Amino acid sequence: MRIYLSKPHMDGSEQGFVAEAFQSNFIAPLGPQLDAFEAVMADYLGGGLHCVGLSSGSAALHLGLRLVGVGAGDEVWISSMTFAGGIFPVLYLGATPVFFDLDPSSWTLSCDLIEEELARANRENRLPKAIVPTDLYGQSADITRLEALCQRYGVALVVDSAESLGGAFDGRKCGSGGDLAILSFNGNKIITTSGGGMLVSRSENIADQARFLATQARDPAPHYEHSTYGYNYRLSNICAAIGLGQMQVLDQRVEARRAVFFKYKQALARPGLSFMPEPEGVFSSHWLTALSFDPQTPGLDREAVRLALLAEEIEARPLWKPMHLQPLFDGARYVGRGVDAALFSTGLCLPSGSDMSMDEQDEVIGHITTLLDGAG
Ligand SMILES: *Cc1c(COP(=O)(O)O)cnc(C)c1O
Questions:
Q1: Which of 53, 263, 282, 370 lies at 20 to 30 Å from 201 by C-alpha?
Q2: 251-375: CATH topology
Q3: pTM of the model
């Protein structure tokens, strides 16, 4: 049987919540399961937060950027190593992305580069409208430092926590940082609603505005009245019901993903092979196990490993291709030293599903070990 990178992992209780929604006929987008899902998530993430369920993580980022005032011609500084859904919303608003490199010690957005560039941009009076760090493969960027920098310069911080639900930084849950954070419940994420996302904010006013814009910006009136344009971006009540079931097992899913990561790390340990580092104060959900193969070490070849696994119907993928290397962003500004490009060419994500059996994990490890030991 094919072993996937990351697939939906239901618990069984999801169907009960969906059945409840059916019994009460709340099939329309809004309903009690959606309210409950938002409340459960707000509770999970910590006090004083407001959650708005949306149709996708991309929709959440689009709304979030608009709500912090990003518009045509503005700059948004963003991690280059990310998924398309974490960047395209910048384009929906006509804003210009400036791509930033990773820190080699964490594989997340380099705060040193951000700090240097903010100081320079401030002197030259060209500060960005927003900064969007990506929490990569389950691991938070240094949100504490980014919050301080953004406050100092009055720049909005919108945290892309689509991959990091279940992780934490400095004792705070991923998805609770910045002015706003976004989550994704796409089918491959740590929990899924079969498709969905969420916007998280400390401000009730921002959450209210997000709900307003996500339901076609209907001004209070008996007829349909519009003073601005909106979107049809709300999470359906049925999908939220799935989310309620998934929230009950989120902590187990994190435990399982972390166990997969540490099993790989221990079983495959050898010179030249580095797993994504987990800096002090950061607790990664290890949504995906990411590692890099040092090309200088004889016998270590990322593509050989990927292809050997593929031949066994095991899905492994290179890390995200940095956005500044995508044809779409040819000529875009990039601030960095190519840490991300190097990781792209040497890095691999291994099957990391929370439902992987021990046999499946051993199978992946066995194929890699055979290949590396044979070649070494
Ligand atoms: C999955 C993901 C998104 C987008 O979420 P969707 O729900 O698929 O729209 C955004 N950013 C990152 C980093 C992601 O991994």
A1: 282
A2: Aspartate Aminotransferase, domain 1 (3.90.1150)
A3: 0.97
